[in-house]
Structure formats: C-alpha cells, structure tokens
Amino acid sequence: MTRVMGILNVTPDSFSDGGRWTAPAAAAEQARRMAAEGAAVIDLGGQSTRPGYAEISAEEEIARVIPALQAVVAVVQIPVSIDTYKPSVARAALAAGAQWVNDVHGLQGEGDMAAVVAEFNCPAVLMHCETDFAAQPGDTIEKLVRYFARSLATAAAAGVEEGQLILDPGIGFHKTPAQSLEILRRLPELRRFGLPLLIGVSRKSVISHVIGGEAADRLEGTLAATVLAVQQGVEYVRVHDVQANVRAVRMAQAIITPA
Hints:
By secondary structure, the chain is of the alpha/beta class. Helix content is about 40%, strand content about 15%. It contains nine helices and eight strands. It has an eight-stranded parallel sheet with strand order 6-5-4-3-2-1-8-7. Strand 1, helix 1 and strand 2 form a beta-alpha-beta unit. Helix 2 (about 60-75) packs parallel to helix 3 (about 85-95) and helix 3 packs parallel to helix 4. It is globular. The two termini are about 15 Å apart.
C-alpha cells in the first residue's frame, strides 16, 4: 500500500511554499490539516535544498525547527519526520518528539548521521544525492544502486537495523529531466535491496519540463507520478498537496487491487 508523506517546510526560501508555515501556530495548523486529509507521516524541514539554496548553520536550523516541531507533535497522532542532513539537528529533533529522519545525503554527508539513527532506532529515509550524477558514465539505475550500497554499508557499520531504512532515488537532485523520468519508469529495479521506496516528485521542475508552467501549476504532473508510483508498488510518496494525492492513491489502488 502506498502512503502519503506531507511536506511541511518551516523555511523562508523553499521553492514552492517558503515562508508560509514558519510560525509554530501556522505549522501546527497545516500539520493538523494534512493529518485530517490522510497523510501517514509529516516531513518537517528547516533547511531549503532548492537549487541554489543558501546553507544555514545547525544552530539556526534547530532554532527554526524545534518550536514548530513541538507545536506539531502536540496536535497530530501520526509520526513526524525531521528533514535534515545535519546530525545535530536530527538529534535535537528526535529528542523533541520527531520519530523519523529524512536525510537528503543518504547517511553520506558530513558528521555521523548513521550513529544518530542507530541511537534512536528510528526509521530513516536515505535519499540519493550526488552532485556529479548527471555527468557520471553508466546506467542510471546502476549508479543509484552503487550509491545505496554505500549508504547501507554505512548504516550497517553504525548498527542501524536494516528494517528501519527507506530508499529515495532523489528525483530532480543533480539529475537531468530525462534521468528523473527514466528513474520513475524503472523504480522496480531498486527492489533488489528488499527495502521500501519513497519518491518525491511534488511540484518539481521535471514536471514543468514536460507540461510547462511554474511550481503552482504542477499538481496534475504530481498526481500522474503518484499514480504511477502506486502502480509500481512504491510505499511512500512525499507531497505538498496531501488531499489530492491521497485521493489519487486510493483510486489507483482500487483499480489495481479490487476489493
């Protein structure tokens, strides 16, 4: 079954919704809304990773996310994920009530994120992110496989339980539109690890590459990707528009798996 992860950015500069949910009360209300609409997980982040983003310090990121996180966990019953690649931010968020880690560097960034995940024994999303990916020679999926093999080796060395891990191919991160579309066609080939998959296509520029428009015009493209993810058995889709995607998932699942 495909579940929906709702995106909650408490950043002033995220590409689609920067600045809308920075106040803790606003973040809590949006989280409450997404939970009511059927989200299974809320993914809360305080560091934008949009193209050309400005990196902030761990201290500033913690100052952004902890008040919002505390407000959110007080009003929802579903797990909250901390979207960060900084171990100190992840540790602070987990101590404050977050239950998942979503690491866009796939445990291969600076610091020992794997040790934090092992310490809290929490689910962790390992995203693919290699700055030179588009120029690397070789088959697109095989390059992802090599990256994930390194991430899983790092996790194992730190004592992370493999059953806690989820793989995200990082659609749009240092990939050409053609590479992102190819990955979306070939998701079942990442099943060789035997782990759940998550995809994040919501409002990304690859959609405008195909159908035109700006970030606000990408809902239909997001829904198309979500339906194809359901068809391929993907466990999680990470989205901004929870209600529309939950409905698309339910309809697709009803067609694919009749009662």
